[in-house]
Amino acid sequence: MTSHFQKLECGAKTRNGTSCDSQELGRGGRCRLHGGLSTGPKTIEGRRRSALNIGKSYDDLLAEKQKRQFRHQYAHARV
Ligand SMILES: [Zn+2]
Question: Which residues are in the CB-under-5-Å shell of ion ligand 1?
Answer without folding.
Answer: 10, 12, 20, 22, 31, 33-34
